[in-house]
Amino acid sequence: MCLAIPHVITEILDDGAAVAVAGRVRAEIRTDLIDSPTPGDTVLVHAGFAIEKLAPEESAELMNLWEEIRRLSGGEA
After folding, report:
1. Number of folded domains in the chain?
2. Range of the domain at 49
3. pTM check: above 0.85
4. How many CB atoms lie within 10 A of CB 31?
5. What is the pLDDT of residues 26-48, one digit of tens each?
């Protein structure tokens, strides 16, 4: 089983890379597997690769669920 974590892209870098955040975690990710990434996009990240770009309505729902997981776990998820 694998786990993909939702991240929000904050910056597009050169050569298929981007900076994205998940909670307080900032990471450099690869965007080779998705079409037209832009800052503000919510993407699912697995093993450092954005594997899916979410529609805005999916993004809002998923981010709310992820925040609930963080809250229930007592902090940083």
Report:
1. 1
2. 5-73
3. no
4. 23
5. 999 999 999 999 999 999 999 99
